[in-house]
Every structure is written in C-alpha cells, then in structure tokens.
From TrEMBL:
Protein name: 23S rRNA (Uracil(1939)-C(5))-methyltransferase RlmD
Binding of S-adenosyl-L-methionine, residues: Q218, Y247, E268, D316
Gene Ontology biological process: rRNA base methylation
Gene Ontology MF: a single term: rRNA (uridine-C5-)-methyltransferase activity
Keywords from the named record: Methyltransferase, S-adenosyl-L-methionine, Transferase
PANTHER family reported in the protein's UniProt record: RNA M5U METHYLTRANSFERASE, TRNA (URACIL(54)-C(5))-METHYLTRANSFERASE
Gene3D superfamilies membership: 2.40.50.1070, Vaccinia Virus protein VP39
Lineage summary: Bacteria, Bacillati, Bacillota, Clostridia, Lachnospirales
Entry-linked InterPro entries: MeTrfase_TrmA_AS, SAM-dependent_MTases_sf, U5_MeTrfase_fam
Active site location: C343, C343 (nucleophile)
Family indicated by similarity: Belongs to the class I-like SAM-binding methyltransferase superfamily. RNA M5U methyltransferase family.
Length: 387
C-alpha cells in the first residue's frame, strides 16, 4: 500500500495524462498480466514462452514530445494532450521519459518570455512554437532538439539557439521543423538545421545508427536490444541465408542480422528512412545488405515471379498490423521461416490466422515489455512453413 501511495505521489498528473495506466501496479505483476493478456490473445495460435522485462523500468523513453500552449493567464505551458482531447496537461517531470529531455524542455519553456516567443494557439492559428521533440542516444549521449514552429520566420533564432546551448552544452544538434498545417500531425515536411549535423547516432547490438527527426527509431533502446537479439535468435541464421527485412525503417534489424546472414534485402516506403538506412549500412561497414524504397509485398511478389528465393523474412509492421495481401506475398516467395515483430498484439492474432491460412504455423511467441507502466507491449513470433 505504501508503494502505491509513493508512486501516485511521484506523478501528480498521472490521472489527467492517462499515459501510465499501470503506474499503481507493481512491475512484476505488470509483466505477469501482460503475459496472460498475450496468452489469451494467441490461444490456439501459438504458445507464449515468456515476457522479457526490464531491470529498471523508469525513464526509458529516449524520445520525448512536448506540446506547447498557454494557460488562462497567458503563461507558456508544455506537456501532453489529455486522452482523446486537445487539452494540454502541463508536465514538468515524467517517470517514463528521459530526465535530461524533460530538463531541456523545461529550459525552453522558461526562455520563451524573454525572447518574446508566443506559443501556438490551435483555435486562432496565432503563435509560433507548437511542439518540442527531444531525442537522445542512450549509448552515445548525443541529443537532438526539434523546435516545431507554425512559420518559417523565427525571430532571434540564432540568439535563441546560442542561449539554449549555453544552458545545455550537451545538445549536439538543433532543428527547426516548420508545420503550418491545421492537423494533429506533429512534424511538417520542411526543416532547417540551426546547429550541428542535423541528426544523432546511437548504438544497438554493437551497430551504430543514424537517427533523423522524422525517421522511426524504437523509443526504449534497452529493450530494443532484447527484442532484436531474440528475433535474430528465432530466425536461426547460419550465415548463408538470404534475408528480407520488410518494413525495415532505418535498417536496424537488417543491419544487425547481416552479421549472421548471407545477404539481406531491406524494403521501406519512407524515403527519409531509406536514406538513413543506406548511411547506417555504410557507417557500419556492412556490405551484404541492400535497401529499396517501395512496397515490400510488391517487391516479394516480383522476386517470386523472377524465380528468386528468400530463406527468412523479418517483418515489423505498424500497430495496425500487416495485410492479408502482404502475407500472401510472403507465401508466394516461400521462405522457410518468418519472424514477426508486433507492436499490436490484437492485430498480431488476426495476422497469425492469415499466415496459417497461407501455410505458415506459429511455433513460439515471446513478449517484450518495451513500455513499462503502460498497457501496451511488443511480441516476437517465429513461424515456419508447412509444419
């Protein structure tokens, strides 16, 4: 009971924010409950072998997003949207966010008045600063700050950047992202690098990765290593296989797997991510991997039509899961094994039924707790053809 009271006291806005739904529950029970949830969803489809948790389940998020607004007195505030609304809940410290990122966001909030920078008002469309995004490489300690503005005109931006860097010399790059659209999208399409190289790098499983403002990168690097090592182990690579990394993003899984495979093909629709993936492969000296910008399903269908083969397919789709069309394209190519990394257990269960229909049986599943204190969890599944 004392532990529960202490956790509630540590986060005064937990009920309004709604981000940490499991904050009141001891971590061991969180893991047990998530394993039961997975087992229930995958019942009759696949045995769940375990739930891999964290030693320290706090301050794990290397990416922190703050919405900027103002209170009734006109003072700038920053925080998160209350669930299912655009009401901003002011947040100064968060139990799951990187502490340095929270500190930098607080500094920016405190600088706005002296620089006469107005926060953006969604109702009127007036104001400049909409969001601040901070990404930190946990292995490299490189820090990116993205200032999302409603207009490209940023008065005194050079002085603002200089002042911010004086307060936080650990910041390695600062970017202005321009988002003038009246949508809920955080980032716009245009960017100006105000300081540094315009990206950060981090190390996963001994490989170095370039992370830009808009490219996807897992928010929990500690558990990402756990997840990827488990995925590669389930793939059963011997050094000879042709591997496809579908939905490859910036190439993390494929580049890590390349050390245990014959050759790897990464396919991704996001052009920025493909550019980062190519740079990441070069930076790591990985020569047995190639990246293609396009639809992974169409790519595999063309491979099959050309008589080409693949031994293993990794897929890591968005939370909405894969599609029956994509799964049928995997079946046409006919790899012996498929390793499915899922960030949506509900859609995973649906997709495993489609895989079964296409001739692939799920052999084992492992839960990986990428998001302690949050109801969500990830899962990695090994499937084999025709067994």
């Amino acid at each position: 009971m004392e532990e529960k009271k202490k956790e509630r006291a540590l986060c005064p806005v937990s009920k309004k924010c709604g981000g940490c739904q499991l904050l009141d529950i001891p971590y061991k029970k969180q893991l047990d409950d998530k394993r039961k949830m997975l087992s229930g969803l995958l019942k009759d489809l696949c045995p769940v072998k375990g739930m891999l948790g964290m030693e320290d389940p706090y301050h794990y998020r290397n990416k922190v997003h703050a919405v900027f607004s103002r209170d009734r007195k006109g003072n700038p505030v920053s925080g998160v949207y209350q669930a299912n609304s655009h009401i901003v809940v002011p947040v100064e410290k968060c139990l799951i966010e990187d502490e340095k990122a929270d500190e930098i966001i607080g500094t920016i909030r405190g600088m706005l008045r002296s620089f006469k920078i107005k926060t953006y008002d969604e109702d009127t469309g007036y104001g400049l600063l909409r969001h601040v995004l901070v990404k930190r490489g946990f292995s490299t300690n490189e820090i990116m700050v993205v200032l999302v503005t409603a207009s490209p005109i940023f008065p005194s931006k050079n002085n603002f950047v200089k002042a911010l860097r004086q307060k936080h010399p650990e910041i390695t790059t600062i970017i202005q992202n321009i988002n003038g659209r009246g949508t809920s999208m955080v980032l716009g399409d245009r960017e100006n690098v105000l300081y540094g190289k315009g990206y950060i790098e981090d190390v996963l499983c001994g490989r170095r990765f370039r992370v830009s403002s808009r490219s996807f990168y897992q928010v929990n690097p500690v558990q990402t290593e756990v997840l990827y090592k488990k995925a590669i182990k389930l793939a059963g690579l011997t050094g000879k296989e042709t591997v496809i990394d579908a939905y490859c993003g910036i190439g993390t899984i494929g580049i890590i797997a390349a050390g245990s495979a014959g050759n790897v093909l990464g396919i991704e629709l996001n052009k920025d991510a493909v550019r980062d993936a190519i740079s990441n492969a070069k930076a790591n000296g990985v020569k047995n991997i190639r990246f293609y910008c396009g639809d992974a399903g169409e790519f595999m269908e063309q491979m099959a039509a050309d008589g080409e083969k693949a031994d293993v397919v990794f897929l890591d789709p968005p939370r909405s899961g894969s599609t029956e069309k994509f799964i049928n394209s995997v079946a046409k190519l006919g790899p012996a094994r498929v390793v499915y990394i899922s960030c949506g257990p509900e859609t995973l269960a649906r997709d495993l039924k489609w895989f079964k229909k296409a001739g692939y049986k799920a052999k084992e599943a492992w839960g990986v707790d990428m998001f302690p204190m949050v109801e969500h969890c990830e899962c990695v599944v090994r499937l084999e053809r025709g067994r």
